[in-house]
């Protein structure tokens, strides 16, 4: 069930000297929503996401995540979100169990809670046979699924996923999206960037950035109707061509 807004953005802007990377973007994201944040490389997606997760201060505009202001409470934002970067986020030279324990500690979980969460995660992903293996020895698809689960260890209100399925095979991509659906169903908001336009179809709503501005924002169905096309890739191409 969709409820209150957990992300609110109004005319958020980021400039680097004379260059405007993010240009007065505005949108809201509801609790439990899967929100696709799309755009070509250089469109401003990553810059916008960095402001929302509290690691880059905006030049102007307003934004709050999990009811915390990005200007005044960036540390509180970090405590209430999960984040999975485009590049694999775990430590290759630690085992699966050691990674879970390490990140559980960073998230401030007690030893008892870490042990409980570790068992649940390993059982859910059927990792019993590799729990004591170095993460670096595992296939990319397994690494990504573990990284996603670890980012949810502390039950964040929002999870930010930056190109989470880049480089993995189609079967693993489908499994990953099943995990995303389950996460959203449990009430966690999922904010995801992807360059796979077919994945945009899986989102509740999608925004598309072009040259720092949000040029389209709606459900995939309504965007396809608006642009009179059959798939999201064609929507993206129409916007990119102006």
TrEMBL record:
Cellular component per GO, a single term: membrane
The keyword Nucleotide-binding is annotated on this UniProt entry: yes
One family name in Pfam for this protein: ABC_tran
InterPro entries: AAA+_ATPase (IPR003593), ABC_transporter-like_ATP-bd (IPR003439), P-loop_NTPase (IPR027417)
Cellular compartment(s): Membrane
Domain ABC transporter: 7-236
SUPFAM superfamilies found in the cross-reference section: P-loop containing nucleoside triphosphate hydrolases (SSF52540)
PROSITE patterns tied to this protein: ABC_TRANSPORTER_2
Keywords: ATP-binding, Membrane, Nucleotide-binding, Transmembrane, Transmembrane helix, Transport
Membrane topology term: Multi-pass membrane protein
Entry protein name: ABC transporter domain-containing protein
Native source species: Lutibacter profundi
Taxonomic lineage of the native organism: Bacteria, Pseudomonadati, Bacteroidota, Flavobacteriia, Flavobacteriales
